[in-house]
């Protein structure tokens, strides 16, 4: 039994994450995770081939066996001596193995910088920039066009802006040990050549005998060989817990990270003194391995980053392919067949349109802004998101593993019932009937119960609130101990002399083992103060008091106390009655504690003044023969809003599992109250294994192991003991057949295992709630770690999201916002692509393949993508959730893409197929007004020159400049209709207009106005006219595009009507 201690691409990072505290917390998380994995290896007894080496930190630490050696064997192994230490020659030889210095993890800033500058769509922009510069000089000589230089400058500006955003959203600099030197002591006191010496800590070698005293930092990993009786270590840097850890000579755990006969690098001696033999230095120490593991952690893309990268690859491949094809056609055909059509410089500039037209340059900006806007919305709901890119992952959540206390319940416990073997009392009844001065027959057992409840308690009242009523005083301690403390403090039975002040004055605590999640009990040893007289000669002077889970303590009890204070042997029939009482209370949602005691007079080997280490060993060995004083029922009511929140979450297709350390019936009762379990029949492990569905998933891929829609709902409850026996096939049954699961009496290690097993099946995206230090590994391992605002700093550091008000209903907001991000990003891309890529690209296509003049200049293409499109798309980021958003199933992050065939159909064969012909018609209409018909403009190639159709070259150039500006104005006005069309997937604009009503979004008209102003500046700005050949256009071409926008919106409204009216139609199946 384990003993307790005796007394990127889309995210600006959170502020302060690089603080020293953050670094320490990261170390603690890695330490906890390593410790659990080491235990797993021990438990599973994994066998590796002889002599095989592994780089896995857990396996490497598992191979540490120095803590299993006797002290004499330690000296023998390292060829050292307790009195002489290492000789100088041995030190010189061993120093060749390396210094006692922990290497800082590689930062590789150059890789990050390259990713910022060349990542995403930027590498396409670099290609465009380089060839544009070449087209200016030398290919543009002897008369280089200023236009080409202007386009190059604009492309460079796009690169700088995009790189800046990539740097903001993909900042993942290491938060571990920026000042790594502070982890190692500067000097160490050693024994070498029989002399005590002080040497630089960096010069320590394996086998050195190191002496430590109070206040010293441990300079290397040591095997303790001599310890004072009071030596204590502070391991808080590693564990996150402030409890002092005693140093011992003997093995206390097979796990090298948990045993107490090792002193680890960077910990402190806070009491006593000791001597140890160095067994690992520098990077081979435990701290060195943790730092190395932190540095090697690969940056994992979140779901939204994966989707954007997938989309980027598709678009980039098409753009590069078309760019290359355009140049090949010019070189192989156009240059020879139509030598006057395009110069090399002109061909490059026009081919660049394949890159600039096909790439939505504004997308990175839109992604970052969208995530930031949603994060601010969540912050208003007291949900703090540490990494913005994880927001969308919330929308993929398919399993939520929630703890109980303080999350599903209000976290304010109070004692409700007290029971002795033959009597049961409600707390209100006790206060009303037994607190009076004249009560003829108060149960005598209350004396012992009050003693255990008050003296065996880890909670303490804050002295600053001592003047307040008991219920209003501030308490330091966990919720369970706080409830028992308040009850005991208020308990007063004058006729029995039950009174807290007199009890505290009569006894003093001489030893304590605090509660921990593995033992599930707390132990105190108290003795009567010497100045107090013992009224009854039979009253023991010292007591062992124990408080904990009944299922854990019942087997350790041999007697039970009756209400009158007498004691009876605890027979099997009496045990059955007590278990029945526990189950009845638990089924009502009460947490049940057993209060026990044993006289220290019956503990063989006890002597007053024993050292703490020996005392602890003695207590563990004698935790038996207890007298069960009574049972305490504690109620922690479910939060009133949790049932509705669970119902909404489940309706959204998310399975909610409870993972708690409570007794199974208590957990099941709360699970029923909040709606996690709705079935009358709840299977256990035996039922599951005997089910007809036991072999259902044999041989199948893990991704298909999940409950089927036609299976119905099945419920299951498993305890920590059950989890220890589960094989892989059992986990297939657990997660493949059941959608309502309660995991009770679990340890932090089992919580981590639950997370890992759930993630491995059914393409699940797993969220986990937690608040304790021990929850950190599970929070880190989950796809989404959710910490409570009142939780430990280590838990908050491990989590990706923090519920500042500890409110479970905030998770509903988080899921909705995560789905909204994905929905809005989809709308943004759907808005950007038809005009920003497809309609722009058609001008390049007609130029390269059909011999027409370029209908949209490179400048206007880039300008439209990074200004007009971005300004308008911002309004989509402010869209509210659609009515069916929380009725959809969670998105499968592996198979459900941001872009699919329906998406591209909408872009290229629906909206885009309306936009580019409309824009092109405006080009031809203007040319027709100048006397140039359709066949005079298309398939012209090198005929467009001086004298063509009676026009000078300057006139022809002016026609092209005006036509390009008309094309530009047409597409930005058509985007009005495109924007209004994509605001809703199914709902009509009549029910969701942006000016009033439930879907009001005033950013839409603001964006429309802003994009029009940008167009005016482009066309009428004198400087832009001179460099980029923009020019004013006839008034009619400012008005006609409005009709096109209305037409696009109307056609899409008809599509939505068909989808709503005929949901099984072909049109509905193609809907995005």
From TrEMBL:
Gene3D superfamilies: Calcium-transporting ATPase, cytoplasmic domain N (3.40.1110.10), Calcium-transporting ATPase, cytoplasmic transduction domain A (2.70.150.10), Calcium-transporting ATPase, transmembrane domain (1.20.1110.10), HAD superfamily/HAD-like (3.40.50.1000). It is a multi-pass membrane protein. The chain crosses the membrane at residues 113-134, 146-169, 308-333, 828-852, 903-926, 966-982, 1002-1021, 1033-1051. GO terms for biological process: intracellular potassium ion homeostasis; intracellular sodium ion homeostasis; potassium ion import across plasma membrane; proton transmembrane transport; sodium ion export across plasma membrane. Pfam families: Cation_ATPase, Cation_ATPase_C, Cation_ATPase_N, E1-E2_ATPase, Hydrolase_3. One of its GO terms (cellular component) is plasma membrane. It comes from Lentinus brumalis. It is found in: Cell membrane. Residues 1-24 are annotated as: Disordered. It comes from the Eukaryota. The keyword Magnesium does not apply. The keyword Membrane applies. Residues 65-137 form the Cation-transporting P-type ATPase N-terminal domain. Keywords: ATP-binding, Cell membrane, Membrane, Nucleotide-binding, Translocase, Transmembrane, Transmembrane helix. NCBIfam families: ATPase_P-type. GO terms for molecular function: ATP binding; ATP hydrolysis activity; P-type sodium:potassium-exchanging transporter activity. SUPFAM superfamilies: Calcium ATPase, transduction domain A, Calcium ATPase, transmembrane domain M, HAD-like, Metal cation-transporting ATPase, ATP-binding domain N. Residues 1-18 have a biased composition (Polar residues). This is Calcium ATPase transmembrane domain M-containing protein.
